[in-house]
Amino acid sequence: MSNEVENNVVDEVENNEFKPVVTVRGQEFDFSYTVEDVDKFTKKFVIKVEGDLFLAFERESYYANKNKYSIPGFRKGKATMHAIKAYYGDHVFIEGAVDQAIDAVYRVMYRPVLLKVNMAASPDVEVRGITENTIEFAYIITVFPEVGEINYKGMEIHCYDEDKYVKELAEKKLQDARKQAGSYTEVDDRPLQDGDTANIDYLGKVDDVPFAGGEAKGYDLVIGSNTFIPGFESQLVGMNKGETKDINVTFPEDYHEELAGKAAVFTVTLNGIKVMNMPELDDEFAKDVSEFDTLDELKADYEAKAKEEGHKQVVNMNNNAIVEAILSATEYEVPEKTIVEAAESQMENMESQLKKAGLTFEQYATYTGLTKENLLADYKERARASEKKNMVLSAIIEREGIKCETEDVEKVIQENAAKAGKEVDDYKKEMKNDEFDYIINQILSDKLLALLQQVNNLVYDK
């Protein structure tokens, strides 16, 4: 595309006005467009380029492509447009003119028109017709539909009690340290019991066919940890070392799409049984695992750390609980094209990271038991949830008139500058646009969550 074809996003856009004008080599040309509503996810912007604008794009195509043509009597790249058309036919620059038109008009319409209809995915283009001096084409735009009714007030939402959570977190820290200090003893004289660690080989099949991720050897499984599919661990209880047994289970309905709800048979061999010997909780234990001399001092340290960590975790978990309750109560359908594009982008990023690490996807699949189908299905579900969340929360922000004021942003920047040990003006100069965007989005999010906490009945019983 020649740099002579310019964007023409005019000042009137701020007043919701738009002039359908393209500037080519300093000269303005009008074009026309109409909008067709195909369905709730799709709009077509039908563009008509004709007359002088058509000729301008055709000439741009000539400038971009003239070096490709050899004409008797002219040095290569020096033949006139008229001479090339006479030699190769009047149509020779039409395809290039169409490309010029599609690109230039899109750039003109992108911000003032297309973004304002909530464009949700990259557009497709449909060329409808080309005549002697007219091009008609359409941008097929996938849009986010309007969010309808949202149930976000007066709900009973179950949240985490911070004191209870902090106590449990401190106890977990203590027990984790105890486990790390423990040792295993092999058991040969009795069957497997709840709480034991079983070392197993297993092979899973659905309809007598092995499936990806359904096989392992020498796997250590703590019985009662609920690590595996419901019913798997309990059926191992009572097995003896060296015994092989078929375990019948059914995958949960919310499991990976290709296995969800399906019956499976795992052939399991118990290689060995281990029991962890846990140290006594006393002052000697505290000395062994820390710099403290007494168990009370160690517990006090874990409680202090749990209080600091737990507060942040509880805030995040309760905010998530509020948002999830609202999303669960709200119907909203995300355009499938948006989901597919997001999932494929995630897959490309993942394969790029594997390549940097010197791995192929096939190697990764062997290590993890995952397939591209597994990952794409997972990425799609994440994209669906993420886009729904963004649209629903944005709709609430708009309906409640929540704003990010200049003083809000200035306050955050001042706090960030102080943390960085810099003057505010110097800090601002170093900030990038996405940092400003992040601050604004965080302020809006904080204000929204504060509102949602006020207008709902939060029950702290988890």
Strand content: 15-25%
Mean pLDDT: 91
Assembly type of the chains comes to single chain
Question: Looking at this structure, what is the CATH superfamily of the largest domain?
Answer: Trigger factor, C-terminal domain
Helix and strand run: EEEEEHHHEEEHEEEHEEHHHHHHHHE
Overall CATH class of the largest domain:
Mainly Alpha
Q: In the CATH scheme, what's the topology name of the largest domain?
A: Trigger factor, domain 2
What does this protein structure show overall?
This protein has 462 residues and is an alpha+beta fold. It folds into 3 domains: 138 residues, Trigger factor ribosome-binding domain (Alpha-Beta Plaits, 2-Layer Sandwich); 95 residues, Chitinase A, domain 3 (Roll); 166 residues, Trigger factor, domain 2, CATH 1.10.3120. Helix content is 46%, strand content 22%. The strands form 4 sheets. Strands 9, 10, 11, 12 and 13 form a 5-stranded antiparallel beta sheet that branches. Strands 4-5-7-6 form a 4-stranded antiparallel beta sheet. A hairpin with a 3-residue loop joins strand 6 and strand 7. The longest helix is centred in the C-terminal third of the chain and has 34 residues. It is extended and about 100 Å long. The relative contact order is 0.10. The N terminus is likely disordered.
